[in-house]
Amino acid sequence: MNHPQRAAVFTSDAERTTWHDETLWFVRQKRDKAVYAIPEFQQLRQLASDIKEHTLSRLDEYLEQFERNAQANGVQVHWAADAAEHNRIVLGIMRGVGATSLVKSKSMLTEECHLNPFLVQNGIAVVDTDLGERIVQLREEAPSHLVLPAIHLKKEDVGETFHLHLGTPKGEKDPQALTEAARLHLREKFLVGQVAITGVNFAIAETGAVVVCTNEGNADLGVNLAQVHIACMGLEKLIPRTADLGVFTRLLARSATGQPVTTYTSHFAKPAPGRQIHIVIVDNGRTRQLGRPDFRASLKCIRCGACMNTCPVYRRSGGHSYDFTVPGPIGAILSPNIDLHQHSSLPFASTLCGSCTDVCPVKIDIHTQLYKWRQLIAQANELPAAKKWGMKLLSSVLARPGVYRFGGKVAREGLRLLPHGLTHATAFNPWAKARELPEAPKQSFREWFEQQSSIPTGQA
Amino acid sequence: MRNGQQTPMKVGLFIPCYVDQFYPQLGIATYQLLEKLGVRADFPRQQTCCGQPMANTGCEQDAKPVYRHFARTFAGYDYVVAPSGSCVYHVRKHYDVVEQTPEVQRVRQSTYDLFDFITSVLGVTELPGRFPHKVGLHLSCHGQRGLHQANESEMTPVRDGQLSRLLRSVDGLALTELNRNDECCGFGGTFCITEEAVSARMGQDRVQDHLQNGTEVLTGGDMSCLMHLEGIVRRRQLPMRVLHAAEIFNAALAQPSKPVSTFVPGAVVAL
Amino acid sequence: MSSSRESILAAVRANRPPATALPPVADFGGEASVERFTEWLHFIGGQVVRLAPDQPLEDAVQQLFPKAVRIASNLLPATVPVNGQTTTEVLEAVDLAVLQGELGVAENGAVWVPEANMLHRALPMITQHLALVLDHRHIVATMHHAYAAVQHTGAYGVFIAGPSKTADIEQSLVIGAHGARSLVVLLR
Questions:
Q1: What are the coiled-coil residue ranges (chain C) (predicted)?
Q2: Which of B42, B107, B198 to mutate to test the interface with A (most CBs of A within 10 A)?
Q3: Is residue A98 one of the residues assigned to a domain?
């Protein structure tokens, strides 16, 4: 299935689509309110973009500086070229300390690497501790949003899942009660977790520290009770200075949820005595993206999810319709770099309305990149045949005024004279499923203009 | 603005391909509106399309001959004016893939959306005339976020723009306050076919917002959005008319509400 | 492993974009008032209590948390001694932790808590309730000022902004996800 097919399944439940759209629009509105309140917000976006741009332009140096400082802090730094290597490194660390259980806070990177199934296959018990992540983990689903992993579910769905797995009373659907049940359930896991994995929001080159932002406190709780902390990061998470966090922490939560800041902004530099910190730096296609001038700005992404909340397509098609770790507009420009063929429908899952670009806190030109991926997809011969040949035909018509005039007249006359049932047959004409075609006039504009013989035609 | 020049500006009218064929009344209204504002536009017969349908589908390479044809067709004009922000945005932003001959560069710079032309070039920010209806403005994304013709809700709570200012100036015309001021309608070129389900749903939601807030006449600066929305309005037989803003202004100007002496059509051209 | 390091760094070097300058550190000014700090902390679910100049901390804590039995603190007589070696079982039973906050941020209600003030790294999150004592003169306007003041974030340190929370079920805000169920800032 491609995006349109999965989206059609999602929208077929009209009521749920309304709910999904309105819930995410509410988050967008909270974001707006927070953003309007900061007069310098647009300057902050520019600064964030410039800091990231600069960092990418000297990324090798910052990575080495970061590694040096982290090692001096007593942290073990690992490098993974791809997902498989990342997963092997994590398993190796776990085996090295004889651990068989793991608590994990939110990390899109480990989702990208499909770490959970790999560890489970190797006999490791993995517990996702972010509430939304835990919900989708119990349901054996993928997160459907970067920041709100279970946003595709209603409280009744969560109630059912918790009834099944956590023994909450049947029919319990109160978010407060369900969250309390998860708190109790996950506390048990935190208390016995041997190893804690976190993602990384920012890695600071000048100190070797990694910064993790959460609202629930699950990252800190997991890490600070476990013997070993493994922080997994894409290599684009680097920023040069601690002071740069001032810019990014002001942007991140406001863009994501409209909060002024996340509840916990945690800076991990040195392990507590007798404990370990490992940092795994992952490439997995990022250096390839760095080498694509049209697309490298996507590496500035701080995973706030604002582009999803604002995207009118995402809101109505759901995160799973993208079938990629990172859904929504940002996912649609990251995914073709990973597998152009598999994700070729994603850059087309957009009207190019540009709202994503306008909310992006690091000013990624998302909708322009969508447009550019479309060109590459066409060049790579990944367009559906009808689209490809249709466009070739259209171009040849539109470059020839005479042919165009004739073709236009045929189309218009056809629409005017053929029976409605034929022109609106949904088998040939998807437009007509929900929409009428325009009523074809007798005369085109140019025919009208030519008739105005009394009108001087200008100098052309 | 033209500084005291006496030679009339040469304005070429670009009527998008689908407007030419299916919405000739919009072409006529655009032509007549410009005429009432003192601009006698020409319609070069060789014109076809800006090439956007192909390019947005990924077939920019195939569209190149169409781009060159567009540039050739309009090379001799001071301004190219189109009642479609989307086409204008495409010419300005995406014609960078063909050789930037002086002709191409000139045409890219001088191509204007109709209301941008009226506001920025003619310097007209108020229009006389009467249109006593509750009008809902659908901002096209390319006009708004692409050409920055209106404030974006992503940036500021202020709801203002070239087209809304012009509409507000018309006597009797009340603008609908929408729940979502600048949400996309879901047309999106071939998106409306390939992503039919989402496209239709977006359009229905857009229409619903207008319906809820009392829109009698749904308008905008881009006929492509309006064609999609009109398709939904007619399918659902909703009590709403869909008119391009040029049609509204042209109709309003036919029944001036203010003494003609306060507004001299054509005077602005000589400013 | 080291071969991946070399190949990744080589690929980064090969694909480096044109050099651009690092912008200077930002400072947009802003209001560093107790009122603003209080407003924001309330907005995010926390509470601010102003201590009278001569009011003993114990009294305020006793009034605010009459039911707290197991209290961990280095600022008042504690009922649960906590240090870096304290076991998880003991930590898990703490009702209330009363810790020193170093710095408050007016624009968002966050308080900087460095490791040295935590007794144990897990304490601020594992405790059921958290009270942070803060000098009202240590409130800065924005995160820019906060990082300028903190300078080095140390071995471990956290900006804590309100109680633990989640909205993962239908975007309904629930206070008390995994960390502290409530947060009070006691302003001196």
A1: none
A2: B198
A3: yes
Could you tell me which chains touch chain B, where touching means 3 or more CB pairs under 8 A? A
Whether residue C84 lies inside any domain: the answer is yes
Q: Is B89 within the bounds of a domain?
A: yes
Structure-token pair, residue A247: 């810019």
**C157 part of contact set with chain A, CB < 8 Å:** yes
Range of the domain at B45: 11-121
Q: Which residues pair with A127 in a beta bridge?
A: A103
| A400 lies in some domain | yes
Q: Do C169 and A175 touch (CB under 8 A)?
A: yes
* Chain C neighbors of A53, CB-CB under 8 A: 17, 20
B202 contacts in A (CB within 8 Å)?
A: 312-313, 316, 351
pLDDT at A317 over 90: yes
Task: Tell me how close the Cα of A32 comes to any Cα of chain B, in angstroms.
Answer: 7
* Residue A201 tokens, joined: 């929001």
Is A289 within the bounds of a domain?
no
Asked if residue B260 has pLDDT above 50, the reply is no
The reply to whether B156 and B116 lie within a common domain is no
Residue type, B1: M
Q: How confident is the model at residue A454 (pLDDT cuts 50, 70, 90)?
A: low
Please name the residues between 13 and 42 in chain A that touch chain B, using a CB distance below 8 Å: 14, 17, 21, 25, 32, 35-36, 42
State how far residue A186 is from chain C, nearest Cα, in angstroms.
Answer: 8
Mutate to test the interface with A, among C118, C121, C168, C173 (most CBs of A within 10 A): C168
For residue B84, give the DSSP letter.
B
* Strand positions, DSSP E, A129-245: 195-198, 202-204, 210-214, 228-234, 238-239
* Helix B245-253, helix B162-169: angle, nearest 10: 30
Do B80 and B173 have their domain in common?
A: no
Q: Mark whether B57 and B148 lie in a shared domain.
A: no
Section C152-158 average pLDDT: 97
pLDDT in tens, C74-103: 999 999 999 999 999 999 999 999 999 999
pLDDT tens readout for residues A153-185 = 999 999 999 999 999 999 999 999 999 999 999
Query: Are C178 and A85 within 8 A, CB to CB?
Result: no
B–C contact: 3+ Cβ pairs < 8 A = no
E strand or H helix at B212: helix B196-212
A10 with A71, same domain: the answer is: no
Spatial contact of B11 and B79, defined as CB atoms under 8 Å apart: yes
Q: Note whether B197 contacts A8, CB cutoff 8 Å.
A: yes
Rounded distance between C-alpha atoms, residue A310 and residue A171, angstroms: 32
The domain that contains C171 carries what CATH number? Answer: 3.40.50.10420
Tell me the residue ranges of DSSP E strands in B48-104.
Answer: 79-82
Tokens 């049209």 found at: A294
Residues A187-220: tens digit of each pLDDT: 999 988 899 999 999 999 999 999 999 999 999 9
Domain closes at, from B75, B94, B121:
B121
Kindly state whether residues A232 and A371 are assigned to the same domain.
no
Asked if B28's CB is within 8 angstroms of A445's CB, the reply is yes
Contacts of A413 (CB under 8 A, 6+ apart): A440
Distance in Å, alpha carbon of A98 to nearest chain C alpha carbon = 20
pLDDT band, very low/low/confident/very high, at B3 (cuts 50, 70, 90): very low
**Domain range for residue A12?**
1-37+304-383
Query: How many domains are there within chain B?
Result: 2
| Residue A276: pLDDT over 60 | yes
CA separation for the pair A109, A198 (Å, rounded): 10
Domain span at residue C57?
A: 30-187
A to B CB pairs, distance under 8 Å = 236
Residue B92 and residue B197 in one domain: no
Range B240-269 average pLDDT: 69
- Residue of chain B whose alpha carbon sits nearest to that of A436: B231
Last residue of a domain, one of B121, B142, B170: B121
Contact: chain A with chain C (3+ CB pairs below 8 Å): yes
**In terms of domains, do A28 and A73 share one?**
no
| A residues 308-367 closer than 8 Å to B (CB) | 310, 312-313, 316-317, 348-355, 357-359
Tell whether C4 is covered by a domain: no
Residue A220: DSSP 8-state: H
